[in-house]
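Section handout 9: paired folding examples.
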Amino acid sequence: MADFRLTAETRTEFGKGSARRTRRAGRVPAVLYGHGQDVVHLSLPAREFAAALRNGGSNVLITVVLDGKEQLALTKAVQRDPLTRVHEHVDLLVVRRGEKVTVDVPVVVTGDVAPETITNFELNALSIEVPATSIPENIEIDVEGRAAGEGIAAADVTLPEGATLVTDPEAQVIGFLAAPTAEALEAELAEAEAEAGIEREESEEDGDVVPEPQDQGSGESMDSAEKSA
């Protein structure tokens, strides 16, 4: 796992106003803590930090350069604006090379399930203990040929070398369900519409077809019209 080198700046002002000014300057407010040291308030370059997350994943390892000194840190919590997705604040945990840390790692699936089977995620991530410098971006789970009624527990997942499972081994990570039939989907939709008070309009195929009224004109027949002529 590669770590990213970011040059930090010390923060001496705090509060919402100070945080907004920091972000307007193109930086992300952050705190650095761990291993018994005092909490350090700093800021990181926003663009470089975003690139580190994009390329290193949510558990990205960062070499923080502050006042000429380097400190290895793990991204523990990132706050983002729900609308703009701007990084608002970052918590960084001091780590040392060779030590183990507990992290939540996303799970991803590979392979194709059996026909008419859908994958149901019970857990989107697994908690593992792993060396700080060997944190995987994700954990792959092979679902090739899995059919409805089967399941994969945490204990069944193959972990990266050197990693230890922290999640309950009996916890189900993925379940496999039978894909719903068209009739079942139609019935579910009809039930939802009924609960919402939506009434469906019957088509002409479903109801009686009312014939178009014929033009009666003056009421005279063609023969009468010819005689009068």
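Moving on to protein 2 of 2.
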Amino acid sequence: MEQNNDQSADPGQPAVSRAIAANVRAARTARGWSLEALAARGGLSKGALVGVEQGRGNPGVLTLARIADALGLPLTGLVDGAPAPLVEVLPAAGGTRLWRGEHGGHGDLLIGSDPPVSAELWRWTLAPGDAHVSAPHGAGVRELLTVLAGVLTLDVAGTRVDVPADACARFAADRPHTYRNDGTSAVRFVGVVLLPGRPDPATSPTRPTG
């Protein structure tokens, strides 16, 4: 039986943290999973998951991606505060900032689609010297991007390419990958993360954790 670790998010926390906490807890309990079960499936510590469900701190993109993958949800399924309407228009200042670079860059999750066709639309700005290092996403995840300004250095599993303004790239994101700005001006690009259809974890057999 779970003890007091499974608490509601602090109402004083930012709205995004409260939404993430509520969505993760709701998705986990809907599947009948304990904190330990979700932590094992996501490759996380129970303490980290408790912090997310209580709305504490600012979980990174990798932590949220692992939770979303374990639950079979897109990242937007964790950060959205309400179900999407039939038609949704995102204002210019919309989106959720999930990454901040050491030199002033940022990554915003703008909008996403729900299963069975799951995709996430991201907007990135990398200041000179910024780098976003990502561990492999789930099996079969692919990314598409187009560079709006500057030259993006993209490293996928040790293969490095420079993507200039107005060029596009696609790559297998189930391998380690890095976005980097080695130039002297800001790099701006838009990316789409494509998630393959997965069985609903709520009805799928439990995966081995050993």
